[in-house]
Amino acid sequence: MSAKRPSPVLPNAMPWPIFEKLRDKRVVLASGSPRRKDILENVGFRPEIIPSTFAEDLPKGSFDKLSDYPIATAGEKVRAANDFSELTSGDGGLRAPDQGKRRGSRRHSDTVVIFPPEKDTAEGGKYHGEHSEILEKPINKEEQLRALDLMAGRECEVVTAVCSISVSTIVHFFDYPKNVIQAYIDNGEGIDRAGGFAIQGLGGLLIEKIDGSYDNCVG
């Protein structure tokens, strides 16, 4: 007999109705992000971690709005995690495909940085005529330098989608000089972070203010 699966709701959790509904469920977070894990544990929730294997390569040109891209990507990540988790038992062992499926919940989010914000490049916006783009996670210092240089003295839009729901935060950057950008890049913090910065770390020194949720920007 397999051991009882631990509840995803921790003893220090607030008595919120959503936690009571999930207390005896198998909840899978299809992400390997330590920041997302920390945010959930801070409110008393510890889901099972099964990182998605989805390549995050949907064609961005196929979306009418760039903010729809993370919604679609989050959905694909959940489907990829489902393909794996349906074949595993609660303790991580393989389960035969014909065994009864566990009742549970799987969630994934995807976060992107859009520069300039789409509302500002639309007709009537203050940057009308420019084209918004998704600033990917930089894979080298050159890509990170380009992203941070673009955003100096400007704003970007951080969009996080959880399945079909998205939240947007506008981040306003100081007009920092090139030597400040280079010092931050040399620190190594922003590599592999959307937009090339981490608001919860030294990257917060580059930011003047935000309009919206802080946790939405943590990455």
TrEMBL record:
SUPFAM superfamilies (UniProt xref): ITPase-like (SSF52972)
Protein's UniProt keywords contain Hydrolase: yes
Renumbered residue ranges of the record's region Disordered: 83-110
Spans through the membrane: none
Keywords, ordered alphabetically: Hydrolase
UniProt cofactor(s): a divalent metal cation
Pfam families in the record: Maf (PF02545)
Entry GO MF terms: nucleoside triphosphate diphosphatase activity
UniProt-listed PANTHER family: BIFUNCTIONAL DTTP/UTP PYROPHOSPHATASE/METHYLTRANSFERASE PROTEIN-RELATED, BIFUNCTIONAL DTTP_UTP PYROPHOSPHATASE_METHYLTRANSFERASE PROTEIN-RELATED
Protein name: Maf-like protein
